[in-house]
Amino acid sequence: MKKVLKEWFLKAPWGKIALISWGDPNGEPVLLVHGRQDSVSTFIPLLELLPDTYHYVAMDIPGNGLSDPLPIGLKLTRIFPVVVIEMVAEHMNWREFIYIAHSMGTELGLFYNAVYPGNLKRCIYLDGAPAIQRLLMTDYAAYYKTFYLDYYDNYDSINTDDRVYSRRDAVRAVMKARSLTSDQAELILTRNLKKIGDDKYK
Question: Quick one: the chain helix, strand, coil %, rounded to 5?
Fold first, then answer.
């Protein structure tokens, strides 16, 4: 497994952003941004295949992996993590960098490039079609219902999750929901499980 150089947290107004790096700290900078309900763990198999001559830094999007969630309240738009990407770029003192993204990270990269043109030297987007399909919606009433009204109609269930799993049940649930092998599910859960007791996880 590719050796992790460093794991640390960047302080944000709402809490902390989890960062992790691999490769050569003096190499060309590469930022990796994961998809919805994932974490930087999804990039580990890919990183095993990439050369060590680059400086890879990945972040857990707020509320994912080891990054703190945003406060419960108003629904935040999916464009919000664009600000977080810029916070990480400023923290790393990167004026220009390569961007590798998966799923929702693709959408964020497109927005980031529009808001901060010239910062992304090259972009590599993996499996972005499901995430950007919503940008093609032309029925704005349906868009509003899907992304806002349904949120407030189901506010309590969305913002409260009392489900507790054994580790085995958590792995099985991820395998079923995402059609993954047990090894893949274990990898996904390395940063997404919070232990709350003896074989009890959220």
Answer: 40, 25, 35
Alpha helices by DSSP H, listed for the chain, are 44-47, 81-92, 104-115, 129-132, 140-144, 150-153, 155-159, 167-178, 182-189
DSSP 96: S
174-196 mean pLDDT: 91
Only one residue has tokens 């400023």, namely 90
For residue 28 the two structure tokens come to 């060309």
In terms of Cβ atoms closer than 10 Å to its own Cβ (0-12, 13-18, 19+), residue 173 is middle
By three-state DSSP, how is residue 17 classified?
Answer: strand
| pLDDT tens column, 185-194 | 999 899 988 8
95 closest CA partner among 124, 130, 119: 119
CA 89, distance to chain mean position in Å, is 15
Quick: pLDDT tens for 66-124. Answer: 999 988 887 777 788 999 999 999 999 999 999 999 999 999 999 999 999 999 999 99
Coil, strand or helix: which one is 56?
strand
